[in-house]
Amino acid sequence: MEKSKIDLFLELASPNSQGISRWVYVTEFVGKYSSLVLGNGFSWGRKSSPLRKKYIVKVRRDLTSGNGIDGIKLEGFNNEEHFNQSIRKDIQDAIRKQRCVMLGVKGTSENTTIEVDHKDGRKGDMRVSDMSTQKIDDFQPLCKAANDIKRQICKNCKMTDKRWDATNIKGNPYPFYEGDENYTDDLGCIGCYQYDPVEYRKSSAKRLCKEASDHTTDFIMKKLYPEDK
Description:
With 229 residues, this protein is an alpha+beta fold. It is built from six helices and five strands, in the order αβαββαβαβαα. The chain has helices at residues 5-13, 50-54, 89-96, 126-129, 144-160, 197-224; strands at residues 24-25, 55-60, 71-77, 114-118, 139-143.
């Protein structure tokens, strides 16, 4: 069986029992290791890769001009807890029977097939990571097109800690159904349209009804008792 890029790198690096290796330089990526050659990025060593999930990876960029990676070293095992994206089958089966909560479609084309979306785009809740403690309410049905867009919106929020404003969609009356544009650990994703568009609509309807009622009462009282203004 052909070795993966990570297996080839580990063969070169030869980490010890503590997960510590020597410096491996990109000039060594020749011959049987030529598939390790790095292009514009570090595809087989990105943050989400199995290599970084298992090891602490250090790189150096100071040996040649530019900002390319010159050397890679393993500095021990990564003991951080990692989010498992697997979803229990009964939840998958139930969600896939539903229509997209954003676009209302449920088709067979590439962009309209239903995907099971983690509502929390940051995927930081380890309870949801554990299939034995997952709840169906942790997920929602999104067609591929909507899920792809949400993924980019969540990525931007994670980079900026600024949540997506629901009034970007014409007809949405409020930016958020809880909280404001600033992401906080206490509230997390709750309150963002992308997190739960159904809850956003329910909350908005209740809020609009209350505001309309309050304003109607105020209007009538001013008409009946104008001297009390």
